[in-house]
Specification:
This protein is mostly helical. It is built from 18 helices and no strands. It folds into two domains: about 160 residues, no CATH class; about 210 residues, no CATH class. The radius of gyration is 23 Å and the shape is globular.
Length: about 475
């Protein structure tokens, strides 16, 4: 595809975009061609609605069209991802008070890969048109390429129409430095996924799958391992997606910005899964805060908790994800009540010095502990498992079955991540020849492990 893109169709933008579209559909259809119909249908609906919103002669009619787009996309998401969850929860609720409901059917359906990502991406298009941030495009091929752009189709970043679509609509030129940056990001992403995340995965699965057999010390370690597993797994995919896009002359938004160096929970959520949190912030949280801006602390806290509950539910159809969101919402609440004590941190720690201060270390350490405990709800199968796991780490602390070998992966990674903290896209100081040699070594290690490992785990966020 790269050869065709730059050496055959380089002078024809429409042909390049058509190649992107065909490749994206082939990429997605390779998993299950039947679900191509969903993404094509979503594309057609939002393309037509986007064209017609500006044509309406009243704000009310524009809003009706926007709501059609939102309800259609959320409807698809609701049926395929949440229908069974709500039905089963409803049945359980009535069963708990003595009513046995047998007439309600659940659906035997497969969750389409990436549905949580591309439905939100298409909704951003119609919302931005309604807000007059973007003019609708009449080029269906380019719009369909925006919706299905293969590097970020199945696990993000969730791109905004105002960023990605204009890049697809304008002529692109191959830039050597951009291509080199892309390759570096791909290598770094592969290293994080194959070497770190996949090496920690068996230990995490063993500890969480048999948590009753381990002491609190080992369970704490399992949480730390999962923290770095999910970070390296998901940020690794994002790096690969961003790097691949660079090879085709397209810049995607950053999705992670060294979140484990955050000094409070507010900063963490500005550095973790940035495309998702900023989407919910811009399209859900800010509008609600604006609507109820004069309603007092309690209403603002309710809006905040609702925001985090929805973020949790976005991740999956399980009460554990709702608990995960609520956990973060509760710990985020003091930032509203005591804003002076939670100043927004926009710069990386120890930016103009090599070593962090004692204060920064304390802030980073305590924030990491809060975040790590929250992963209990994210990773556990049921709420009961979550609370039993939490109980054991708090009240049954011992080191039976201690699995310290995972730290051999984590400690070197923390050092590398700290060294490149000034710019997540300037991998290992790209202009440093010695650093480039190390990057090549990481690439070789990743390739070797990829081929010689018995199993390579799927990306965690493929299930969302």
């Amino acid at each position: 595809m790269f050869v065709l893109y730059w050496f055959v169709f380089n002078k024809h933008l429409k042909q390049q975009n058509l190649l992107i579209l065909i490749s994206s559909y082939f990429f997605y259809g390779w998993w299950d061609y039947r679900f191509l119909s969903l993404i094509i249908l979503s594309t057609i609906v939002d393309y037509i609605i986007g064209l017609n919103i500006p044509k309406q002669d009243s704000k009310k009619k524009q809003k009706i069209l926007l709501l059609c787009s939102v309800f259609f996309n959320l409807g698809i998401l609701g049926v395929f991802k949440y229908y069974n969850f709500f039905i089963e929860s409803w049945i359980d609720l009535f069963s708990s008070i003595g009513y046995d409901i047998k007439s309600v059917w659940t659906l035997n359906i497969i969750l389409p890969v990436g549905i949580s990502f591309y439905t939100f991406q298409t909704m951003s298009y119609t919302i931005d048109i309604y807000r007059k941030l973007l003019n609708p495009t009449k080029d269906f091929i380019s719009f369909a390429s925006f919706v299905s752009f293969f590097p970020q189709l199945v696990a993000g970043p969730i791109e905004r129409s105002v960023n990605l679509l204009p890049q697809i609509l304008r002529k692109r030129e191959f830039k050597y430095e951009q291509g080199v940056q892309g390759l570096r990001l791909i290598i770094w992403g592969m290293f994080k996924k194959v070497v770190i995340a996949d090496s920690l995965a068996p230990m995490v699965n063993d500890i969480f799958g048999n948590y009753q057999d381990f002491g609190g010390g080992t369970l704490w370690l399992g949480l730390v391992y999962f923290s770095f597993q999910i970070y390296c797994d998901f940020s690794g995919y994002s790096d690969i997606a961003i790097g691949t896009s660079k090879l085709f002359g397209i810049e995607l938004m950053s999705n992670f910005n060294f979140p484990f160096f955050s000094r409070n929970i507010s900063e963490f959520w500005r550095r973790w899964h940035i495309s998702m949190t900023s989407w919910f912030t811009d399209y859900l949280y800010y509008p609600l805060r604006l609507k109820y801006r004069d309603s007092g602390y309690l209403t603002n806290i309710f809006v905040l908790l609702l925001y985090f509950i929805i973020i949790g539910l976005w991740h999956g159809d399980n009460w554990t994800f709702i608990a995960f969101g609520l956990y973060h919402g509760v710990f985020f609440t003091p930032t509203i009540i005591f804003p002076k004590f939670y100043k927004l941190k926009t710069k990386q720690i120890s930016l103009n010095k090599f070593y962090p201060s004692i204060k920064e270390l304390f802030q980073v350490g305590t924030t990491f502990i809060f975040i790590t405990v929250g992963w209990i709800f994210f990773r556990s199968e049921t709420l009961e498992d979550s609370f039993l796991y939490l109980y054991k780490i708090l009240f049954e602390f011992n080191i039976s079955g201690f699995k310290i070998n995972g730290m051999l992966y984590i400690i070197p990674f923390i050092i590398l991540d700290y060294l490149i903290r000034k710019d997540e896209r300037n991998i290992l100081f790209a202009k440093n020849k010695l650093a480039n040699k190390y990057l090549f070594i990481l690439f070789v290690i990743s390739i070797v492990l990829m081929f010689f490992k018995e199993t390579t785990a799927d990306f965690i966020y493929f299930q969302f």
